[in-house]
Specification:
The chain has 160 residues and is α+β, with helices and mostly antiparallel strands. The chain contains 3 helices and 9 strands; from the N terminus they run ααβαββββββββ. It has one domain. Strands 1, 2, 3, 4, 5, 6, 7, 8 and 9 form a 9-stranded antiparallel sheet that branches. The N and C termini lie far apart (69 Å).
């Protein structure tokens, strides 16, 4: 009796093909050094989320750091009722299916995951700290309603 090898081949094919199609979160999220994500919240959204401090958030690779083993991202935020643009550097590495990023100076951490329209940013349980000319502000971590951000991909010249 002769058996066909086709069922076995079809069963093994996804396992053999997986590494060829696998893409790291870093490569998926930041295919070039001009990759950028930006979310600006309108007044209607902010009115329905009174505990949210972030009016605008953006992130993209720090110039000159794209080829390094650890990706450095520039994270910028603009807060409700404040014109100041606050900025911090985040150092990011692939961790499973996400990019894990820690802000410089132990100012918190977040995870980035690729989505169909951009990126999902989840703030760590202790929040994120940003310092500016008008002082220090903590986002998320129970201090504000700034825990998860859906960030669409935008042209590089749209990011601060």
């Amino acid at each position: 009796m002769r058996r066909s090898a086709l069922p076995l081949f079809l069963a093994v094919l996804p396992v053999l093909a997986a590494p060829a199609f696998a893409e790291s979160p870093r490569d998926a999220l930041f295919p070039t050094d001009a990759s950028c994500y930006l979310r600006a919240y309108d007044s209607a959204h902010l009115a329905s989320h009174p505990d949210q401090l972030v009016k605008e958030i953006a992130l993209g690779p720090e110039p000159g750091s794209f080829e390094a083993d650890v990706l450095v991202l520039r994270v910028t935020v603009r807060l409700r009722g404040d014109a100041e643009l606050r900025q911090a550097d985040a150092y990011c590495e692939n961790t499973g299916g996400t990019l894990s990023c820690g802000l410089e100076g132990d100012a918190g951490w977040f995870q980035l995951s690729p989505t169909a329209k951009g990126a999902r940013m989840e703030v760590g349980r202790d929040g994120l700290g940003f310092e500016g000319e008008t002082g220090f502000v903590e986002l998320g971590g129970g201090q504000s309603d700034d825990e998860v951000f859906a960030l669409p991909a935008v042209p590089a010249d749209s990011c601060p």
